[in-house]
């Protein structure tokens, strides 16, 4: 099975346009809480970026924590990140949190965000949770190692990469690429287009919903599980089996490539 190569990111200095900087803000209040026998410090970080009309790019790189994106009308990208660090005491947790910085690269055509901190601090339970409102026309690239990715309403294309966590998408269009090692993938398409849909999991099921009139060319593969297609006009190509299924939906169209090792694959229609 082919694997989607994980992008290696290079640490670069933050570059912020004056227009974006004028709309930025940071909540410097630190909340310290106790849980699980350890102290926890929390900081909220917010930004607002004006994006050019058309298909601007939004890249979010994370290690521990969820990424939740809601696509909305307009051309403004709004980001809220909750940064959390843990320590043996309140003071330790605050010291760890102080070493976490948000790196920004921003222009009207592209915004890239990533939390930066010394590698050894990862042991202290640093987590960054993103809540984002992005223009519908923005192309999204979302990456997290430990956490869930959720996207709704994105129409210009999505790329999502997760190691430990699920990927859920709703009301998507254009090219959609998603890969996870340990977790399920659930995607509901508003329309098929671009380079189609490519979903790949190792330990997890794949569930795809398509509009009744969507045209697609299906290639589905699994090792331990089964493959089913229902509630859409489907014509099988070749003999097929519980581990391999090819065919066309509504006569064929953009590629619908689905692959998993341990899990089921389901393709169905939306009501």
Q: What would a concise description of this structure say?
A:
It contains 2 helices and 22 strands. The chain is mostly beta strands and 271 residues long. Strand 6 and strand 7 (110-116) form a beta hairpin.
Q: What does this protein structure show overall?
A:
The protein has 271 residues and is mostly beta strands. The chain has two domains: 14-52 and 72-134, no CATH class; 148-271, no CATH class. 5% of the residues lie in helices and 57% in strands. The chain contains two helices and 22 strands. It has helices at 18-21, 90-98; strands at residues 25-35, 38-50, 57-61, 67-72, 76-87, 101-106, 110-116, 127-135, 139-146, 149-152, 158-164, 167-172, 176-182, 185-189, 197-203, 206-210, 216-224, 227-230, 234-237, 244-249, 255-262, 265-269. The strands form two sheets. The protein has an eleven-stranded mixed β-sheet. Strands 6-7-3-9-11-13-15-21-17-20-19 form an eleven-stranded mixed β-sheet, with no helix packed on it. The longest helix has 9 residues, at 90-98. It starts with 17 loop residues before the first helix and ends with a strand.
Mean pLDDT: 87
Broad structural category = mainly beta
Uncertain ranges: 1-23
Counting DSSP H or I runs of 4 or more residues, the number of helices is 2
List the helices and strands and how they pair.
Blueprint: H1 18-21, E1 25-35, E2 38-50, E3 57-61, E4 67-72, E5 76-87, H2 90-98, E6 101-106, E7 110-116, E8 127-135, E9 139-146, E10 149-152, E11 158-164, E12 167-172, E13 176-182, E14 185-189, E15 197-203, E16 206-210, E17 216-224, E18 227-230, E19 234-237, E20 244-249, E21 255-262, E22 265-269
Parallel strand pairs: 3-7, 3-9, 4-8, 4-10, 9-11, 10-12, 11-13, 12-14, 13-15, 14-16, 15-21, 16-22, 17-21, 18-22
Antiparallel strand pairs: 1-2, 2-5, 5-8, 6-7, 17-20, 19-20
């Amino acid at each position: 099975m082919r694997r989607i190569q994980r992008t290696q990111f290079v640490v670069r200095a933050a570059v912020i346009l004056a227009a974006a900087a004028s709309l930025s803000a940071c909540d410097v209040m630190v909340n310290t809480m106790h849980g699980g026998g350890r102290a926890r410090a929390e900081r909220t970080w917010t930004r607002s970026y004006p994006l050019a009309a058309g298909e601007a790019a939004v890249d979010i790189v994370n290690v521990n924590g969820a990424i939740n994106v809601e696509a909305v009308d307009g051309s403004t990208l709004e980001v809220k990140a909750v940064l959390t660090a843990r320590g043996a005491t309140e003071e330790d947790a605050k010291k760890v949190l102080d070493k976490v910085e948000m790196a920004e690269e921003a222009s009207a055509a592209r915004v890239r965000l990533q939390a930066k901190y010394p590698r050894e601090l990862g042991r202290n339970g640093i987590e960054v949770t993103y809540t984002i409102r992005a223009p519908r026309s923005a192309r999204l690239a979302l990456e997290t190692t430990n956490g869930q990715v959720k996207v709704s309403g994105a129409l210009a294309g999505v790329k999502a990469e997760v190691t430990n966590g699920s990927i859920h998408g709703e009301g998507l269009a254009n090219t959609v690429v998603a890969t996870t090692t340990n977790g399920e993938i659930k995607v509901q398409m508003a329309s098929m287009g671009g380079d189609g849909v490519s979903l790949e999991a190792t330990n997890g099921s794949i569930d795809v919903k398509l509009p009744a009139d969507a045209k697609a060319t299906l290639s589905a593969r699994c090792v331990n599980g089964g493959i089913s297609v229902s509630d859409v006009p489907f014509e099988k190509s070749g003999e097929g089996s519980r581990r391999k299924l090819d065919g066309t939906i509504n006569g064929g169209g953009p590629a619908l490539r689905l692959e998993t090792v341990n899990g089921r694959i389901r393709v169905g229609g939306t009501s």
